[in-house]
Amino acid sequence: MPAAIGHDVMPAGIGGDVMPAAIGDDVMPAGVGGRRLPAKTEQRMRFCDSAKMAVGLAATALPFARSHAEQAERWLRILRVNGAVGSAMQGIGLPEQPLVAHAGPSDAEPCRPDALAMVVEAAARSARERDAEGVTTQDLFVGVAATYGAAFDHALAVRGTTSAEVLERLPIAGR
């Protein structure tokens, strides 16, 4: 199942270790919406194994979300068990399920078909800003927070934490 994200870039977990650093607005990773378009890549960034796993899981899970908020919720569940972000969230005691069953303000907002590409682009930007050699789950967390905003903040809040609390526990240089 070697679907390409860009011209010669393999998606996470399918044998490749390089993903696009900047994806144009017209690009959808294969498997998310079923489209396959050429990537506008400024530079390629390596993804650590846990970040590749997280992106691969998201590419599988996001198409089944019914709303923008549900996409954010799926990202949270993926990040909670992967890499340094997973360790930080588990250290906080972040539960799998929300502590409060309450619909968030973004539940009515429809899914964004380009959300995965937006997260990957924001994560790569985060990695470049901190002069990293590659993208980690820490960068994905920053990308998810930037892409989903209030919906992601709500998913964290109903579990008793904030983006700031998670970031404080991560060893990100310059943050």
CATH superfamily of the domain at 47-168: Clp, N-terminal domain
Mean pLDDT: 76
Instruction: Return the string of H and E elements.
Output: EEHHHHEHHH
> Which class of secondary structure composition applies to the elements?
mainly alpha
What spatial order of strands do you see in the largest sheet? 1-2-3
Distance between the termini: 38 Å
- Which topology of the domain at 47-168 does CATH recognise? Double Clp-N motif
Which band does the percent of strand residues land in?
A: 5-15%
Number of strands: 3
Radius of gyration: 15 Å
Given the structure, what is the number of helices?
A: 7
Report the helical percentage.
40-55%
The CATH architecture of the domain at 47-168 is: Orthogonal Bundle
> What's the main sheet like?
3 strands, mixed
Query: What is the CATH top level name of the domain at 47-168?
Result: Mainly Alpha
Question: Would you identify the regions where 5 or more consecutive residues have pLDDT less than 50?
Answer: 1-42
What would you call the shape? globular
